[in-house]
UniProtKB/TrEMBL annotation:
Pfam families the record matches: HATPase_c, HisKA_3
Keyword tags: ATP-binding, Kinase, Membrane, Nucleotide-binding, Phosphoprotein, Transferase, Transmembrane, Transmembrane helix, Two-component regulatory system
Lineage: Bacteria, Bacillati, Actinomycetota, Actinomycetes, Mycobacteriales
Organism (species): Nocardia aurantia
Protein name: histidine kinase
PANTHER family: NITRATE/NITRITE SENSOR PROTEIN NARX-RELATED (PTHR24421), NITRATE_NITRITE SENSOR PROTEIN NARQ (PTHR24421:SF10)
Single GO MF descriptor: phosphorelay sensor kinase activity
InterPro entries named among the record's database cross-references: HATPase_C_sf, HATPase_dom, Sensor_HK_TwoCompSys, Sig_transdc_His_kin_sub3_dim/P
Matches recorded under CDD domains: HATPase_UhpB-NarQ-NarX-like (cd16917)
EC number from the UniProt entry: 2.7.13.3
Start and end residues of each Signal transduction histidine kinase subgroup 3 dimerisation and phosphoacceptor domain: 182-247
């Protein structure tokens, strides 16, 4: 950006310098070529030089002013007896430069108008001057060659720009293809490793009552709970595999948990042996599905962390829907080892990214009694946006 501004200031400075040089040459020499009163000489010299200042901003307007002033000078102001050109050389140079830039940058209709008007202007004005003879007929050809060269430069510039854009599109396509290939590899690994083992867990849990004899009703219920949790996890893994194998667009028909499903999640954790209790304040049905999904994933990760880092301790969950917000609190009591934050892990980073994506707040820290608490507050009217730190990586999505 700095280089672009520097180049722009350099070109503007050069344009102003050339305009000043044109005016400095046109004013002192005007009385040598035309019969102009001294008081009018600066104005006539300005008509010859100052339109050049528009060559970068609007060359078509600059050409129109320069051509109109040239026609007026040729019709109104007489030449000196020994001069044959109807305009000053400075005026001719400025008009040629403006016509060339018009051919390069302006609309093609304006280019054709400029070419025709300039050819007529120079052809008639030069033919009226004694001493030029047939040379006046060469000016329309010169104008045609100048415009043709400008159109050639225009075509080359546009072709180069189109080539650069095509290369950028190809580079983006290659990057997108690499991302899709990486997502496909991750999906394949998840399927081969995680999904396979989860399927085996489901089969073992379902067949255990038939393979192992003399099971108590409590043991049978435990195996059923393990099978239900494994099937639920397997369904979510299959949904994640579908997302990873797609081009990044989430299918509208893909089932996703909502805030109402939080109660099933908590009940499943209790069936799995977690000592857990919960309170619900407010209707969970009023929580939008997108916000409910983020809340569900945060609660899921929080329960997983509590079971992993403080096994056997009681977990207290609070859900509150009020005043346009929904708040989730997951707190576990002290375990055998005092809870500490330690180095930030993927789980906490993923929960924090989910909360930030909806403009919410997230807090995770040890409690004074040695336990650990996770608290997330999300607005009910939030619209999903990517976090400021960048897009969510597959690791953060899985967290």
């Amino acid at each position: 950006m700095r280089d672009h501004n520097r180049r722009r200031w350099l070109l503007d400075g050069m344009t102003a310098l050339v305009t000043g040089i044109f005016f400095a040459v046109a004013w002192p020499t005007l009385h040598l070529t035309h019969q102009v009163p001294a008081a009018a000489q600066p104005f006539i010299a300005g008509l010859a030089a100052f339109p050049f200042a528009l060559i970068r901003v609007n060359p078509g307007l600059g050409w129109a002013i320069s051509a109109a002033s040239a026609a007026g000078i040729a019709l109104i102001i007489p030449n000196q007896p020994d001069q044959h050109l109807p305009f000053q050389v400075v005026h001719i140079l400025a008009l040629f430069a403006l016509l060339f830039c018009t051919a390069v940058r302006a609309d093609i209709r304006l280019v054709l108008i400029g070419w025709g008007a300039s050819a007529v202007l120079f052809g008639t004005a030069m033919a009226r001057q004694d001493g030029l003879g047939s040379a006046g007929l060469a000016w329309p050809l010169a104008m045609t060659g100048l415009v043709a060269f400008g159109l050639l430069v225009r075509w080359l510039v546009l072709s180069r720009r189109a080539l650069v854009e095509r290369e950028e599109e190809n580079e983006l396509e290659r990057a997108r293809r690499a991302i899709l290939e990486e997502k496909a590899r991750i999906a394949r690994d998840l399927h081969d490793v995680v999904a396979h083992h989860m399927s085996m867990v489901v089969v073992q849990a379902q067949t255990a009552p038939y393979r192992v004899g003399e099971l108590s009703p409590a043991a049978v219920a435990e195996f059923e709970s393990i099978g239900a949790s494994a099937r639920s996890a397997l369904n979510e893994i299959r949904g994640m595999l579908g997302l990873l194998r797609s081009d990044g667009q989430l299918a509208d028909h893909a089932p996703q948990p909502t805030a109402v499903d939080l109660l099933d999640l908590l009940a499943g954790a209790r069936r799995a042996g977690v000592t857990i209790d919960w309170t619900v304040d407010g209707p969970l049905s009023e929580v939008p599905d997108t916000v409910g999904l983020a809340l569900y994933r945060i609660a899921q990760e929080s329960l997983s962390n509590a079971s992993r880092h403080a096994p056997g301790t009681a977990v207290h969950v609070g859900l509150a829907v009020r005043a346009g917000i929904v708040q989730l609190t997951v707190a576990n009591e002290p375990g055998t080892v005092p809870a500490t934050i330690g180095a930030p892990g993927t789980g906490i980073a993923g929960m924090q990214a989910r909360a930030a994506a909806f403009g919410g707040t997230f807090h995770a820290a040890p409690r004074p009694d040695g336990g650990f608490e996770v608290r997330a507050t999300l607005p009910l009217s939030a619209a999903f946006t990517l976090p400021a730190t960048g897009p969510m990586t597959p690791t953060a999505v899985l967290a």
